[in-house]
Amino acid sequence: MTRLRRWIFTSGMFVVVIGMFSVVELAVRIFYRHKRVDVEQLLYATGPLESYGEELGWSLNPSVVQQIRTGFGDLVTYRTDMRGFRVEEDRESSRTEIDVLFVGDSVTFGTSANKSFPLEFGRISQLKCINAGVPGYGTDQAFLMTKKVFETMGIRPREVVYGFYWNDIANNTSRVGTDFDERFIVHKPILNRESKIYERAEVEKNDLTRKYASPTFLEALQRILFHSKFLMATWRVVQHNRLLHQQHRPLPKFDDVAKSYLRENMDQFVTFVRSHQLKFAVLHIEGGHADLEAQISAWLEAYCREKRVQYIRPTLTKEDYLPTDFHLSEQGAVSVATALWKQLQ
Q: In Å, what is the CA distance from 297 to each residue of 107, 287, 302?
């Protein structure tokens, strides 16, 4: 009889828990009836957005269209032109006559948004611009992309704008991409500080097997649970709080090694653009821990003053960033483009 009561009690508690969860799930679904709370999903693609190579580590494939749904339900479309630069719909960047070349990482590219500040800058200024930003790039790859645009593609802009973001300092010191999923290993070029030569990416050591492998039991269970709006809303709150309190996250150190790599990469950058008699500007977009940003901005401003390079750091608000991370929102893309145009005029 005791065993029967225990079984009845356990079953009852299970029913109560399921019932409470169902009530909360229903309430969340009613509250979020006009919003989608989900993981980012790939909805449509004509092909993979990135390919891998020794010269740059990775770059964008030409003539690709991808559509994703972000965790907040926004539909975002990525398009590249025939040379692998991000473009807007029905627009192809100019072949050779370019006013401004933008290089940088995912913030320059415009990850998770339909607008990017380079393309918004072109719309506001009516100048011909190229967005050559690639997610995951550091200062070294941004410079190597600039060289490729000149030496391989034969494009001659009048000005180069480097979109700097705080995680570039970690990318500069690593032989592998630091912004990829930790399950993947993707190698990148790195500057040999003794020979001043860029060592090519060891692409033969890349490990992308987990990217195309079948999901593990835990990954499959996670995907099933993420169909619950209640669980996804809870996860979103946890993730957002982690982003708001970045002091609890491991941050790259802006130590002597990081400064050395940044300086020597910037020296290569400045020497190259001046050898082609181009204007050069460093656009510093903040998004990291306040203490780290203070160190970086002081160093960058002093360096640019020393090299007589224009240094621009726009003032942004909370609304200029996406709610899930510190990439720019569409409003942020417009804000940065507007501030940049005022400074460059």
A: 17, 12, 8
